[in-house]
Amino acid sequence: MKYELPRLPYEYDALEPFIDAKTMEVHYTKHHQTYVNKLNEALEKAPEIADRPLDELLRHLDEVPEAVRAAVRNHGGGHLNHSFFWTIMKPPAGDVAPGGKVAEAIDASFGGLAPFKDAFSAAAAGVFGSGWAWLVIDASGRLAVTSTPNQDNPIMRGERPILGLDVWEHAYYLKHQSDRAGYIKDWWSVVNWQAVDEAFKGGSGGAIAA
Ligand SMILES: [Fe+2]
Q: Cα of 132 to ligand 1 centre, how many Å?
C-alpha cells in the first residue's frame, strides 16, 4: 500500500487573506509530501503491516514493529492529520458559525460557540512546541477540546477528531511569524463547519484511504 498526497480541495490562495498562498503551497507540497514519502519508506521496511489501514496502525502502535514504530507514528500521523486538516478548511465566505447537529452539541457541551472557541483557542495557544489542537468525541461519546504533541492524532488514545488545528510553526510562520494567537484568530474564518458537522455525524473522522 503506497500513500499519496490527497487532492487539495481548493487553490493555494483560496484561504487568503487568513492563510496565505505561499504557506499553503509549502505546507502541502513540502511538509505534507515529506510525511507521505517517509511513511512509505517506513512501510517498505515492514511489509507485514503495509496493507493494514493507516488509522488502524495508529490505533494499535504496539502492533507496529519497533524498528518503524516511531516513523509510522510521526509520518503516518502527519499524513493523517494533514489530510484531515485540508478538508476542515474552506474559502472564507462569511458563514463562520456551525450549523446542524454539531452546533447543538457544541452548545450543549460548552455553553455556546463563543465559550467553545475560547477553550479551543486556549488549547491551541497552549501547545508547547509543535502539535495540534482538537475537538474530539471522547471515549465516553462526549465532545471535548484537547491537544496532542508532534503529529500524534487523538485516535491513538481512543478519541475521534472532528476538528483540528495545526499549530506547528510551519503552518503560520511565513505570514504570522511568532504570532500564533493571530494565526488562531484568523483560522476561525476558514473553518469548514459543514465538514465538521459531517465528521460529527459519523463521517470519516480522520480516516483516509491509501
Ligand atoms: Fe503541518
A: 9
